[in-house]
Batch of 2 targets.
Target 1
Amino acid sequence: MGGFFCLDFYNVYAYSADMRRTLLAFFLCLPLPAQVPTPELNKQLTELAKTLASVTYDSKKPITVEGRATTMVWPEGTSGIVVIETAKGERYAFSTAGVPAMAKQGFTRFALSPGTAVKVTGLLAPGNGMIGSSWIAGRADTIDKADGKRIFDRAKLPGGAN
């Protein structure tokens, strides 16, 4: 006969102290992926990813942005998008690479948690990067965490910096 496992968090104090410590350790050790986008945001970012994958970037428009990661999306068949929000409230959507290429660099959905401080260098999309009224778009060439660890480097992608 099948069944399921359920924890009654309202009565967690009924568990022994050892069980409470085990449960706490379990939940504190879970890696937190970046924010899961709403269906509408996922649709917007998927369309943006398709658009940015075919854009020719101007090497005369370099950009460096420091902020916090809010969302990551990897639509099938195109490059991923990492959304960064600056302290001024600006939202940048950076095109990265496809899942296989990102994974080879160790960049998975667990690489960034919501709120992780990052520094992104890259190029602005044409038209000063403005896509619609709320997005500044670009191509990420590098993504570094606040501790200096590089988690994405376009130059190390197969075929070089494309």
Target 2
Amino acid sequence: MTSVNGREGFRADFRTLFVEEWSPYLGAVAIICVVMVLMASGFFWGVFGGLRLWGDWFNELIGLNALMGNRTHLDNPLIHRISLMDITLVLGALVAALVSRQFRLNRPPPIEYLWGAIGGILMGVGATLAGGCTVGGFFTPLVFSSAAGWGTTYVLSFGFLLLWYGLVHYNESSQRFTVL
């Protein structure tokens, strides 16, 4: 009798932890804890450095590094700290989706490919101009009360409002923007 109750209790706990959605506030607290542990260890949280390293490796593979003037001796992505954080971030998201049984491959509408390409290009240009992504250019400087973090806050807010305006006024049935 106790094994059945114990099994049901485990299922309830599993469902609470891994299947049901968490509060966004709990997610924010978890991110703050990770950033604080990294800071206490003398490190910072970053994403763009690992992605850039992957891009440099790809450019080296196809022979563009010498042409672009990039360095040809690159760190190993499997021992580079920020690259490892990127890998574990992707693997952690995959495991979370698999465990919660919410992983599925969906084919988006064709317009979403265009939106994804435009968004990816703008994010890449923005990260290059800022010298880092929203993590390195926003969260980390904001924790240290740097003016760069507050400036990034205003720019990100402007970009969000512009995106929100565009998405709210996008008519899916006609696949075009409608302006008030």
